[in-house]
Amino acid sequence: MATTVTASSRRRAALAKRVEKIVNTTPVSDIHTHLYDPAFRGLLLWGIDDLLTYHYLVAETFRYFDLPFEKFWSLSKTQQADLIWEALFVQHSPISEACGGVLTTLNLLGLDVKKRDLPALRRWFAKQNPEKHVTRCLELAGVDRICMTNSPFDDVERPLWERGFQRDERFVAALRIDPLLLDWPGAAPRLAQWEYDVGAGLSDPVVGEVRRFLADWSKRIGAKYLMVSLPPDFKFPEQNNCAQLMEKAVLPHCREFGLPLALMLGVKRAVNPQLRLAGDGVGRSDPQALQNLCAGFPENKFLATVLSRENQHELCVLARKFRNLHVFGCWWFTNVPLVAEEMTRMRLELLGLSVTPQHSDARVLDQLVYKWSHFREILSRALTDKYVDLSRAGWEPTAAEIKRDAKNLLGGAFERFCRGERPAPGQVRP
Ligand code: FIX
Ligand code: ZN
Asked: Residue 267's pLDDT is what?
């Protein structure tokens, strides 16, 4: 009996090692980030002060100090980073996921974190060549493609696209349209200012102009998909601007251009506005809206992620019913090991390999390093358990099969979904 147990635990350990090696060396296509092509210069955040002032850490810091919000915001980035470092790393052990992430990143960059020496960390970053640092972070994270979040409504970003620049092919564009869908009265005058003939109403000619706007920007940036983050009370169909614009302008545009629409569901913006970017919260979404979209528009492709842990199971079940729905990422508050592991296992069990279980949502370049290192651990564990289950049934996965599966999960399935490809029955082979 003891010999059998040892033999099977040895087999398991060998399999775990093989899976881990494959998962760690499979390049990732990171399908949603807030990073920018290096040509955008100051918009691409990197380095220790940007890592420390990440809004995830800002929210955690305010739990420890009673500084007035406005006082904090009036400080320079370096001063804010000093306070965050003191509160989250010096006064307390940095055990939260966002804090641990900073340390994983620094450690993998080869820095000595145990000295707790912030000035020394700053000196190291100050010496880095920004272009080389981009390549280094991508290599360390094992990421070869990064989807940006590109908004024509962003006054810093828009002129750069209008002027044009030499694209870095590692950075892929995604067209962000939140202001259009969520604040039509605010967006309409801006479109008018950019010479699209729109008034406040949504007559057919106005909808035509919105489509012209979407077409111009999809072409200008070479959009891989369109995207919007929506509040928990998003409903579809509905007689409001958001649902009407989605139905009459965005979905026809996506069909015409063959582009998916990414829906990120469940964010409650500005629950505490004093925290600024750190002040958003979460609420349960109604999966009926997504169901209506998938069922009502079978020619459209939907990418979806939901913010509430309570919605995850329903989302998986929905994706089993609609092949025009692709589930992605452990978004934001769900990107903590406890929830991400549960979600990843659930998705593998309900959706197999037809899912993209993670995106980084990185806002700071260096975060790619920890976000992918942490997720690869989760994925390796979850996949190992699944392959062990298979081997118990006599099905031993080959290295080539494991590689194929890892590739699927880390970007391959997403690419195929975007291209609208599904293997023909005869092609479904290992
Ligand atoms: O809507 C989004 O794309 C969110 O990811 C952001 O708004 C959010 O601030 C974030 O960075 C979450 O990770
Ligand atoms: Zn995001």
From this structure: 99
Q: Which candidate, 341, 330, 319, 356, places its Cα nearest to that of 145?
A: 356
| C-beta of 270 in contact with ligand 1 (< 6 A) | no
Cβ–ligand 1 distance for 277 under 6 Å, the answer: yes
pLDDT for residue 92 is more than 50: yes
> Does the CB atom of residue 14 touch ligand 1 within 6 A?
no
Cα–ligand 2 centroid distance for 268 (angstroms):
13
CA 412 – ligand 2 centroid, Å: 21
Instruction: Say which residue the tokens 């298979």 belong to.
Output: 390
Q: Measuring from atom 11 of ligand 1, which residue has the nearest CA?
A: 361
Q: Are 357 and 347 in contact (CB under 8 A)?
A: yes
Tell me which CATH homologous superfamily contains domain 2-42+135-419: Metal-dependent hydrolases (3.20.20.140)
Ligand 1, atom 12: nearest CA belongs to which residue?
332
Angle value at C-alpha 86, between 81 and 92, nearest 5 degrees: 130
| pLDDT above 60: residue 429 | no
Residue among 280, 328, 359, 367 whose CB has most ligand 1 atoms within 8 A, to mutate: 280
Superfamily classification of domain 48-127: uronate isomerase, domain 2, chain A (1.10.2020.10)
Ligand 1, residue 361: give the atom nearest the CA: 13
Residue 114, amino acid: K
Q: Which residues contact 227 (CB under 8 A, 6 or more apart)?
A: 32, 149, 174, 175, 176, 177, 261, 262, 263, 264, 303
Q: How confident is the model over 302-357, as pLDDT tens digits?
A: 999 999 999 999 999 999 999 999 999 999 999 999 999 999 999 999 999 999 99
Domain-by-domain residue ranges, the chain? 2-42+135-419, 48-127
